[in-house]
TrEMBL record:
<dbReference type="Pfam" id="PF02875">
    <property type="entry name" value="Mur_ligase_C"/>
</dbReference>
<feature type="domain" description="Mur ligase central">
    <location>
        <begin position="117"/>
        <end position="291"/>
    </location>
</feature>
<keyword id="KW-0132">Cell division</keyword>
<keyword id="KW-0436">Ligase</keyword>
<dbReference type="GO" id="GO:0008764">
    <property type="term" value="F:UDP-N-acetylmuramoylalanine-D-glutamate ligase activity"/>
</dbReference>
<feature type="binding site">
    <location>
        <begin position="119"/>
        <end position="125"/>
    </location>
    <ligand>
        <name>ATP</name>
    </ligand>
</feature>
<protein>
    <recommendedName>
        <fullName>UDP-N-acetylmuramoylalanine--D-glutamate ligase</fullName>
        <ecNumber>6.3.2.9</ecNumber>
    </recommendedName>
</protein>
<comment type="similarity">
    <text>Belongs to the MurCDEF family.</text>
</comment>
<keyword id="KW-0067">ATP-binding</keyword>
<keyword id="KW-0573">Peptidoglycan synthesis</keyword>
<dbReference type="Pfam" id="PF21799">
    <property type="entry name" value="MurD-like_N"/>
</dbReference>
<dbReference type="InterPro" id="IPR036565">
    <property type="entry name" value="Mur-like_cat_sf"/>
</dbReference>
<keyword id="KW-0133">Cell shape</keyword>
<dbReference type="InterPro" id="IPR004101">
    <property type="entry name" value="Mur_ligase_C"/>
</dbReference>
<dbReference type="InterPro" id="IPR036615">
    <property type="entry name" value="Mur_ligase_C_dom_sf"/>
</dbReference>
<dbReference type="InterPro" id="IPR005762">
    <property type="entry name" value="MurD"/>
</dbReference>
<feature type="domain" description="Mur ligase C-terminal">
    <location>
        <begin position="313"/>
        <end position="426"/>
    </location>
</feature>
Amino acid sequence: MKNVNQFKGKHILVLGLAKSGFAATNLLHTLGAKITVNDASPEGDNNDIAELRSKGIEVICGGHPSDIMEKGFELVVKNPGIPYTNPVVVEALRKKVPVWTEIELTSCLSEAPIIAITGSNGKTTTTTLLYHMLNIGGKQPLIAGNIGTVSCSVAERASEENIIVLEASSFQLMGTETFRPKIAIWTNIYDAHLDYHGTPEAYRSAKANITKNQTQDDYFIYNDDQSDLREFAAQTSAMTIPFSLQGRKETGISADDEWIYWNGEPFAKRSIIKLPGQHNLENILSATAAAILMGCDKAAIEDVLSSFTGVRHRMQFVKELQGRMFYNDSKATNTLATKSALAAFTKPTILIAGGLDRGHSFEELRPFMTNIKAVVALGETAEKLSEFAASCGIVDIIQAKDVKDAVQQAYPLSVEGDIILLSPACASWDQYSSFEVRGDQFIEAVMELK
């Protein structure tokens, strides 16, 4: 960690405790700041609160006092999930008090170069792929952000010998001012999180913060197959590295049916790749480009390409049973992610889907339903999904009470050679506390099948 004095004696409000708030509070306290923590949840038996108070840190729980910004704070560090419509955030911005998320702290403090990955889809897979490439290549990577440890905690222990591989959401990137990764990766852009950002333009603007402060000494890896991202690439000061699935390109990284190319030269054969799906090829290209730029040797990259079969809960191969292949894609919490999953398979597929009803349509999935032989619907959207499946000409449609019941009902519908895929196209919160819990129940149910 860099030796910095910019926080010493500063009066800082940490808004929202949770994992990132707890980490940011401890770090800022170590750096000599005067901290107040404010969390909307009741105090309960939270051990973190007791630990913070034992250090002399003020903690206010159970709501956001309307006058809290009258305490003279010079900086607010907020939990990424707290919207900018929150009254405390609104008042802070009115008073022209900076409002950060903790990845801004990471940028201020890290001695290690940062590779930041964002995108509407593919962030976690790209981050994991890149981490493994760098790790096998002896580059001492540390994984951080949405996928791992809170990034400012990683920055605290990182040295110049490390590389921080950071998954960054639009929520996190919106709360940055000087954040500057050595390499920025933008996998793709689709409309998402509009309930938080308000407009597609605001969402894109938040994402664009990943490259806003980059210079000609940095790299920006982007999806050249998307016109929106080509426009953002034209605005960056960084060296641009395009990736494309549209055949061999003379610059950047690209792919055709046989090869991955680096600056127009064959680099690795497509046939060694184990991870299924065109959308995952995007992730592979962007991760490979970053690994090459960081000096990873080809053998390390090919080792990962030939062995990596997926991130837990994201197109994760679970098991083969009597010729049926089970895949856990619980992280597919929207139709865009499920569309990518369906496009990855050409074999007959039994789709387990459904969950929290946010009022969205399943219509985007229609062109990808041709290989679906049966649908098992669950959650709040079970009826809506069943009606949609019937309109696609699917005859075998079952409604299940939960994921475990869905697996038990899906298996008898299958024959040897079929895919049984959990890809809900919906958030989990109607029945499960997280998509991880939902995916874990799927894995457990598959393992129990005889």
